[in-house]
User: Which sequence fits this backbone?
């Protein structure tokens, strides 16, 4: 007989609190939020039923298109950047820095734990132009160039945002993929070496395919994280100049809390949820044959 | 997928025969790219930090007219005192601590209890409940913001730190339950069966055997969630509308605009204080943090 059969009271004491808090503050709100999509108004003014107006509006609103485009652009560019840079770092840790890599890993990982707001304010000052040049413009000056208004122009603001987020996250992806490479059995790498493949060929034919599972995790993690980007944008550019760096998350926040339109805000949140799910499914599907081959 | 980071590298490339002097020269030459890379990577992390710390000691005049490579003329803490008191960083710091730490404690405790019941005990519907918790990891937190705001508004909790505490507690639950359940799976069930045979109730078993046995896991998961909550901006920005209740991150975000964006010294001091907290935590625990964050994210 199995003695570990929970009676109702014990279960209530053990699972009850977590399930209650989770249901009240996560599950019910998710369903509730879906209900909001069919209404107009907010918590203070009250709600009126408007049917599918908010869905229709999603397709007509040019700002949604811009925000969606920016979210996707940022998501794709950052995902490629994060995973590529992380993979290069992990290769450097294993094959170039080798045993001495521990200190470098620790150093490069440090920005990962920093609050985004602090990093963003620091980068604002690093790339500042007026009234005092930041570190970057001081260097530009030193090299004989004119100071650049980095955050005043949409293209360069996007570049600064990318630089900052890559700086913040590369250490994480470096360590994640490093752990993946360490999981590759040493004998495989040794025997490939003996067979005469070193350098790029070793990476291309042995390390890359055998890192596929962890690369896939990195991709899913990265696209999900970057599609939800909020903190860095709010703190670095606040969506500007104009609304050229406004992702869906920021537009959803503005719609809901600055214009007090909960119904439309919920529709935007729903759109975001769909896109995150779709991106994950797409990546997992696209990689499935590869994973079978490796396993 | 479990990820472990051995403390030492595992490549043994130079284990070839005997090392001649020609070889050692070539080895030194081969180390040059590695050294350059290490210095470069170190520099891109350290230089901005160094600039930040130096700037936090400079006066307004020094910052505006001096060169960036010049050291501050005096190393007094005026800017820090200014940020800490008049810049209200002390208050923001307290607000963050009194919401994040209790939320972390409650979330870990009830999450561990649920993980225990879901993994160790046998009952109908446990896989369904686990699935329900898992679903929470997938959905963006934006989906819950507006209904929660309505709930807090209608129950009169707006204007207190309760909304943040409650949302934080709920938010860390899915990943906590999921990860801790995985750790409970690794403990042999016989241990709990023996305890039950000896007459311990299941609750007693959880507190006296289960919790102590996953102590390390609790610590790791706690660290991951600590960073997540301490650095949160979205929830704090949504549920905090009074300046007295600002968390460290919201306070810092407002700092630049409200306190006078051109007060460089105090601004840099405030950033330094925020970064400094994380620096000390990281200095103490960097191995566990790297392991924990990587494992926590991949499993999520």
Assistant:
């Amino acid at each position: 007989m199995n003695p570990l059969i929970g009676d109702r009271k014990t279960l209530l004491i053990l699972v009850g609190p977590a399930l209650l808090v989770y249901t009240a503050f996560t599950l019910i709100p998710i369903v509730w939020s879906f209900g909001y999509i069919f209404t107009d108004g907010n918590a203070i003014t009250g709600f009126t039923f408007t049917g599918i107006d908010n869905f229709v509006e999603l397709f007509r609103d040019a700002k949604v298109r811009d925000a969606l485009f920016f979210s996707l652009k940022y998501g794709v560019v950052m995902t490629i950047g994060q995973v590529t840079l992380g993979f290069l770092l992990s290769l450097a840790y294993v094959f170039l820095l080798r045993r001495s890599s521990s200190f470098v890993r620790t150093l490069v990982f440090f920005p990962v734990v920093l609050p985004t707001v602090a990093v963003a304010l620091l980068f604002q000052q690093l790339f500042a132009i007026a009234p005092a040049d930041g570190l970057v413009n001081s260097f530009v000056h030193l090299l004989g160039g004119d100071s650049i208004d980095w955050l005043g122009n949409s293209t360069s603001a996007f570049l600064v945002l990318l630089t900052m987020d890559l700086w913040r996250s590369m250490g994480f992806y470096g360590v994640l993929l490093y752990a993946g490479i360490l999981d590759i059995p040493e004998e495989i790498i040794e025997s490939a070496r003996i067979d005469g493949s070193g350098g790029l060929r070793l990476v291309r034919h042995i390390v890359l395919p055998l890192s596929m599972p962890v690369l896939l995790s990195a991709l899913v993690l990265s696209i999900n994280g970057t599609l939800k980007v909020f903190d860095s944008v709010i703190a670095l550019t606040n969506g500007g100049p104009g609304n050229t760096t406004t992702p869906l998350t920021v537009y959803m926040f503005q719609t809901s809390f600055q214009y007090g339109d909960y119904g439309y805000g919920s529709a935007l949140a729903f759109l975001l949820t769909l896109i995150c799910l779709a991106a994950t499914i797409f990546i997992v599907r696209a990689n499935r044959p590869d994973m079978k081959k490796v396993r | 997928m479990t990820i472990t980071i051995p403390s030492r590298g595992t490549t043994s490339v130079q284990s070839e025969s005997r090392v001649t002097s020609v070889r050692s020269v070539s080895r030194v030459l081969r180390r040059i790219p590695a050294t350059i890379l290490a210095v470069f990577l170190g520099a891109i992390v350290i230089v901005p930090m160094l600039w930040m710390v130096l700037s936090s000691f400079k006066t307004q005049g020094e910052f505006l007219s001096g060169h960036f490579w010049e050291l501050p003329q005096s190393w007094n803490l005026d800017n820090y005192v200014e940020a800490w008191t008049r810049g209200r960083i002390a208050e923001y710091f307290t607000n963050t601590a009194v919401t994040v730490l209790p939320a972390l404690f409650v979330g870990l405790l009830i999450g561990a209890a649920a993980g225990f019941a879901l993994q160790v005990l046998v009952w109908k519907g446990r896989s369904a409940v686990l699935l329900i918790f898992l679903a929470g990891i997938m959905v963006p937190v934006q989906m819950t913001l507006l209904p929660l705001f309505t709930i807090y508004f209608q129950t009169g909790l707006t204007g207190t730190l309760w909304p943040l505490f409650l949302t934080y507690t709920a938010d860390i639950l899915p990943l906590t339950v999921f990860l801790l359940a995985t750790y409970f799976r690794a403990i042999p069930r016989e241990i709990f069966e023996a305890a039950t045979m000896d007459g311990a109730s299941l609750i007693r078993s959880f507190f006296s055997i289960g919790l102590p046995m996953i102590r390390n896991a609790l610590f790791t998961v706690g660290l991951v969630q600590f960073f997540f909550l301490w650095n949160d901006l979205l929830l704090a920005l949504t549920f905090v509308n009074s300046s007295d209740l600002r968390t460290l991150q919201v306070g810092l975000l407002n700092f630049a605009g409200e306190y006078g964006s051109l007060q460089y010294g105090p601004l840099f001091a405030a950033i330094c204080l925020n970064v400094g907290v994380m620096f000390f935590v990281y200095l103490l625990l960097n191995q566990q943090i790297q392991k924990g964050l990587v494992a926590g994210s991949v499993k999520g």
Remarks:
- The mean pLDDT of chain A is 89.
- Residues 154 and 242 of chain A are 8 Å apart (CA to CA).
- Chain A touches chain B through 101 residues (CB under 8 Å).
- The beta strands of chain A are 39-42, 46-49.
